[in-house]
Amino acid sequence: MNQNNAAKKLAMAGVLTALAVAGSLVSFPVAGSKCAPVQHMVNVLAAILLGPWWSVGIAFCASLLRNLMGIGSLMAFPGSMVGAFCCGMVYAGFKNVPFTCLAEAAGTGILGALAAYPAAKLLMGAEPAGLFVYVVPFLVSTAAGSILAYLLVTVLEKGKVLAQVQGAR
After folding, report:
1. Residue 104: which H helix or E strand, with range?
2. How far apart are the first and last CA of the chain?
3. What phi and psi values does residue 30 have, to the nearest 5 degrees?
């Protein structure tokens, strides 16, 4: 990767991280979890624009910043990072936006929710009601974010903006 390309990817990652952090101000509580659908939309955009590892890094940075700023919880790490990895890998393999959005929803809503259980128990000292207690709130958040991502990517594709941004990398 040349320096110009690396700088463009880093700048895009910074913009997407900032969008995820600012977007977390739009959140709603569901069953003890703070649902931030913009993070899931950013996961899909990052997967499409930058790839799986950048997507995971953006999810980590956004979760870290939200926690440092006091506007997030430790649940942000497993939920966002697992979803980012899943949708990044699916897009890298298939280049299919609907499958990528579904992978984000399944990755965050099921796998991320299951990973949140030990995080809540061991790191937060919580006593979750059961292993699947975070599945519903995580699914609600990621479904909303995945739908937003699908709509945004569709508009960007129709306007030929997505191809321009992808071509600039």
Report:
1. helix 97-106
2. 10
3. -140, 115
Does the pLDDT at position 73 exceed 70? yes
Give the other-Cβ count within 10 Å of 104's Cβ.
33
* pTM of this structure: 0.94
Q: Which range among 23-27, 47-51, 70-74 has the greatest average pLDDT? A: 47-51
Residue in this structure with the two tokens 């895009």, named with its chain if needed? 12
State phi, psi for 44 to the nearest 5 degrees: -65, -45
Question: Helices 76-94 and 37-49 sit at what angle, rounded to 10 degrees?
Answer: 30
CB 112 within 8 A of CB 81: yes
Three-state DSSP state, 30: strand
What pLDDT was estimated at residue 151? 98
Question: Dmax of the chain from CA atoms?
Answer: 50
Which one, of 54, 73, 55, lies nearest residue 64 by Cα?
73
